[in-house]
Amino acid sequence: SKKLVNIAAEFYDKPFNDFRSQFGEIGIIPWYLDKENKHDDFSYIYQPLDGNGEIIAKVSDLTGQNGWIKGGLMIRENLLDNSKHIMIVKTKSNGIASQFRINTSGASDNVNNSSLSNIEWLKVKRSNSTFTTYYSSNGEDWTILDTRTIAMNSNVYVGLCASGATSDSPVKATFENVAVSGDTFTISAISNNNGGSVIGSD
């Protein structure tokens, strides 16, 4: 398994709320590959989370051609490409999806509601080993999409993810009103001049 390559250090040194106040919105242009099966390829802007917490954001724009391009929110146990994780994403043609890997190096699974094409507000919440994905039409009234029991370490990573479905389906996802609640722990970043971040598969 390969570790995530961090290529925008400012993303990791500040809380998401600082981005919102400084930039108004956050845009991610990922490399391209889909997050499926036993190894992940996608762009990820994250911060550490220690214990319970949640992340909320509005996916205000999703641009690309493939029906399974996606942008959304993720909690993952570590920064390896085979990590346990759960995420909720907005897709181009398949509504809102909750995607998850319960076991390290196991297959990813998917639960989606294709009728939710107009939804923009998403949330992922952790309560011990219970992870719940939510959606909302207004950012205030929340409906559960899916709940999973996943045994993750206390220290995990929470953030914004975006992915195309194939090598010829790039995607741009734009996020607004990002908010994270919960305690943090210290991480270090490897940086260069490019934006975004990517997890590379074998």
Q: Your description of this structure?
A:
It is built from two helices and 15 strands. It is mainly beta and 202 residues long. Strands 1, 2, 5, 6, 7, 8, 9, 10, 11, 12, 13, 14 and 15 form a 13-stranded antiparallel β-sheet that branches. The chain is globular, with a radius of gyration of 15 Å. The N and C termini lie close together (7 Å). 41% of the residues are buried.
Class based on secondary structure composition and strand pairing: mainly beta
The whole-number mean of residue pLDDT values reads 75
Assembly type of the chains comes to single chain
Instruction: Count every beta strand, where a strand is a DSSP E run of 2 or more residues.
Output: 15
Number of helices: 2
